[in-house]
Amino acid sequence: MAREPGSQQAVPNRPEMRPDDDGVARRRPLREQHVEETVEIAVPVRTAYNQWTQFKTFPRFSAVVRGVEQLRPTVLAWTLGYGPVRRRFAVEIVEQDPDAYLAWRGLEQRPSHQGEVEFRPTESGGTAVTVRMLLEPRGAAKALTGSSGAARVIARLVRRELESFRAFIEGLGQEGGAWRGTIRNGRVQHDHPEPPRSRVAQWPVG
């Protein structure tokens, strides 16, 4: 699970970080992935990004997301399902830049995964949304997940989910909420230092 503030516990599969020109360490985009899908959406970047951050609304358009629960400020539990089958797992948001980028890593061990979503303006004033995922299976699942057939199945699912999101936000015309914070290395960044022992504000996921 996510580390408590001040903890030095090592976390496996931490995405590679890089220093930017301002000296702040930011996540290096995935150089390897099993899945990459892009859709263009006819709303501005700010609108698309804001709606994406409202994770609790995903079941309203998704064919597989059944629920999203916030466990910690940057850790969410997702419940996926198809028919009677349900699977619940936790993910940590490790990097987030408003109107540009969001990256996560799975906290489960078998299999684990990393992912990222980018938001870029198009010439028509809309938004290109790109999702990339890298699966990190363990044991016997490695051969299956690493196959081209499995990657194609996951890619089709990601594509359908992106198209459903496009239909959802274009139908709304405007976002139903937003979280405009920044995350670095799995921690919410604050404009002003918090007083000692103060509580971290909850993520408004919907």
Task: Walk me through what this model shows.
With 206 residues, this protein is an alpha+beta fold. The chain is 18% helix and 36% strand. It has 3 helices and 11 strands, in the order E-E-E-H-E-E-E-E-E-E-H-H-E-E. It has helices at 45-52, 141-145, 148-172, and strands spanning 17-19, 25-27, 35-41, 65-72, 75-82, 85-97, 101-106, 112-121, 127-136, 182-184, 187-189. Strands 3, 4, 5, 6, 7, 8, 9, 10 and 11 form a 9-stranded antiparallel β-sheet that branches. It is globular. It starts with 16 loop residues before the first strand and ends in a 17-residue tail after the last strand.
Main sheet?
Answer: 9 strands, antiparallel
Shape: globular
Distance between the termini: 22 Å
- Integer-rounded radius of gyration: 17 Å
| Share in helix | 10-25%
What is the total tally of β strands?
11
Structural class: alpha+beta
Output the number of helix runs.
3
User: What string gives the helices and strands in order?
Assistant: EEEHEEEEEEHHEE
Q: Give the DSSP E fraction (strand runs of 2 or more residues).
A: 35-45%
Low-confidence stretches: 1-15, 139-144
Mean pLDDT: 80
What's the short version?
The chain contains 3 helices and 11 strands. The protein is an alpha+beta fold and 206 residues long.
Features:
18% helix, 11 strands, alpha+beta, disordered N terminus, nine-stranded antiparallel beta sheet, two-stranded antiparallel ribbon, 206 residues
